Amino acid sequence: MASIKVLLYKGKTYSDGTNPVIIQIIENRKTVKKVIHRCLEKHWDSKQSKLKSNAPNSTDVNQLISAKLSFYQKALVNSEEGGKVISSEIFDQERTITLASCIKAYCKRLEELKRFVTLGGYLALLDQVIGYKDIPIEKINKFWLEGFCFYLQTNFKNTSSTINKKVSRIKGIVNIYSNTTNNEVRQFKVPVHDKVKLKLTKEELDKLINLKLPTNDILESVRDFFILQVYLRGVRVGDLLQATTNNFKSDRFVYTSNKTETGYDMTLILPAKAIVDKYISQNNLALFPFWKWKVNSKESDDNNMKAKIAHKESCTALINKYLKLLAAMAEIDKNLTTHIARHSFAVLADESTGGNIYIIQQLLGHSNRATTEGYIKNLRKTDVLDKAADKIFNDIL
Q1: pLDDT band for position 195 (50/70/90)?
Q2: What is the domain-level CATH number for residue 302?
Q3: 75 and 112 housed in the same domain
Q4: Can you give the C-alpha Rg of the chain in angstroms?
Q5: Domain check: are 160 and 244 in the same one?
Q6: Whether residue 230 sits in one domain with residue 109
Q7: Which of 58-62, 235-239, 314-318 has the lowest mean pLDDT?
């Protein structure tokens, strides 16, 4: 009868000070070892045969250890039932584990943790990996990553920052599920070029506000939604979509951010109050008529949350579609989206506060100062360059 166990093999130490975590099978005095991970000795719990909770990615790595131990135990039982002698062939069965299968395993973990927003990003990544070329995780290398980046750029028009985020996710999956440390993958980086954040000038906002639109038409609702976003300090699209009449009382807007779970309480300026009053009288499920989702008592909490996220994304896509039409009608040559409302408010806040980063951070609801500083720096860039160019040509002409 063979024995199988997981242990930290101290007979080998890697250059980074870690030791291999191995699966060891012993039968008839013959030993077969398979490296499944690596960690520092201080992070290994020898009694429990798993990583300690303070180790990096301990939850995911311990899940991996448990899954691989189960895999090899089953392979060993099948080998013994077939009267076969233990050999490295048991380990060879695992060589078909692909990047896609590892992403699926990680998605299952995210679902268990109810991290549905993050889950959506990994499910999209899974489809793109399958669409490009799924290969064994041990064979992921610089060449494959370069090809995948080109695939994302040409087929999905992804920006360098979006591609970099997806590559970072793949590197994380490789780090968790690969048996070896792949320095080529770890060191791979996508050059990220700062993308200038679009915003509307005061003149462009006025053009949008003064557009003559049919009453009770979807174009009017989309325009009002965007303008109210600006008036409500660049409120995030998901928060305004789900805002109900209960969030607007005593000329104030009181809500809790879905993203940060931070509470906000702000006064309604007169133009904002006029928009709110217009839609409160319509008795929609939410303030604006876009939000239709309701809890389905027949579905689980998890399925309800997934449906809610999907509905939010479809509503956002619909609003963005009509914003592009509104931009054309107002002769605004910009790719207008809901997030530009947030950028536009940030510029107004920067101008009116004299660039007070602390106040702007509180107004935008950023969790840290660095995010706000990067945001404002990017938004100021275009104005600075435009003014410099104007001065150059004014001096010449």
Answers
A1: low
A2: 1.10.443.10
A3: no
A4: 27
A5: no
A6: no
A7: 58-62
Evaluate whether 136 touches 98 at the Cβ level (below 8 Å): yes
Average pLDDT estimate for 28-54: 88
Is 15 a residue whose pLDDT tops 50?
yes
Q: Does 90 map to a domain?
A: no
Q: What is the pLDDT of residues 203-234, one digit of tens each?
A: 999 999 999 999 889 999 999 999 999 898 88
- Alpha-carbon distance of 397 to 392, in angstroms, equals 9
pLDDT at residue 347 is higher than 60: yes
- Is residue 93 domain-resident? no
Answer with the one of 133, 162, 186 that is the final residue of a domain.
186
Q: Where a domain ends, among 84, 113, 135?
A: 84
Q: Which of 104, 97, 51, 48 is nearest to 72 (CA)?
A: 97
Residue range 329-343: mean pLDDT, rounded: 90
Q: How many domains does the chain have?
A: 3
Could you tell me the pTM of the whole model? 0.62
Cα–Cα distance between 87 and 25 in angstroms, integer? 9
- Say if residue 176's pLDDT is above 70: yes
Domain identity same for 228 and 171: no
Same-domain status, 45 and 120: no
pLDDT digits 0-9 by tens, 74-87: 777 666 655 555 55
**Structural domain for 374, as ranges:** 202-393
Residues 243 and 349 in one domain: yes
Residues 174 and 212 in one domain: no
